[in-house]
Amino acid sequence: MASNPRAGGSKKGPTKGSGGKNKRSLQGRGPTPKAEDRVYHKAHKSAAAKKASSAHQARRRKKENGPNMVAGRNSVLEALREDVPATTMYVAGRIDSDDRVREAITLATKRGISMLEASKPDLDRLTDDAIHQGIALQIPPYEYAEPRDLLAVAADRAEAPLLVALDGITDPRNLGAIVRSAAAFGGHGVIIPERRAASMTAAAWKTSAGAAARIKIAQVVNLARAIDELKKQNVFVVGLDMDGDVELPELTFSRDPVCIVVGSEGKGISRLIADKCDQVVSIPIAATTESLNAGIAAAVSLYEVARTRRG
Length: 311
Known about the structure:
The chain is an alpha/beta fold. The chain has 2 domains: about 70 residues, CATH 3.30.1330.30; about 160 residues, 3-Layer(aba) Sandwich (Alpha/beta knot). Helix content is about 35%, strand content about 15%. It contains 10 helices and 11 strands. β6, α7 and β7 form a beta-alpha-beta unit. α6 packs parallel to α7. The N and C termini lie far apart (about 135 Å).
């Protein structure tokens, strides 16, 4: 006797699916996004912060390496009076002229500086939205020398090199003051690091009172390596620090080739640079005074070396 199918069962043939084409088909979620693409993930936040930092550094490099703008009537006039190098002066078309504007135009004309009329939006863009009062002065990028160029200046004068190297000086006014002191006391040049340091901006030019046009400034990628190279040229490297081994007046080598290393007032010279110095000296000051400004410390040291050499 033939067997009967199971109770409640049904006989079905092969079926064909819709291939996911009907309206009720399930929708896949797709591949899992990368961690940096998920806004809530720390990798995304880290990538965003890195991108913002890179953009900031790019803007900073562009600002430092590109033309420097002096904005505002007083600032422009002071720069022109101090013979700060300039290529172009921008003046608003309908500027409310006063004595400062008229003198600035006169000085720019005498120096052969080109003058261009600019709209307010143009001046806003050129000065990075600084308060320009309708006038701005474009300063060309400074042409830095190499440390060997500073030694060559001393050789041409048949003098023992007297150099200043700056470690951690970030205020351009301090840089300008040190450049001025170096020129005043017979220095042959100033060495500055390329990164995390003041550069020859319009503020540095103004503070140097024109000395930056008479003395070379070298910019180096690695200050420690530059010091090593100077030592190979028999330059005695002296670091200034309030905890120095000896006091400045006790120097016995000031007639030899010398490089004075000056650090910031707050931090002084770094440990790496201090270890590179042949001698670390201090400037004797009253106990009631905690420290000296970097520009003043450099001036005192340069004067002391110059005095000893003359004696």
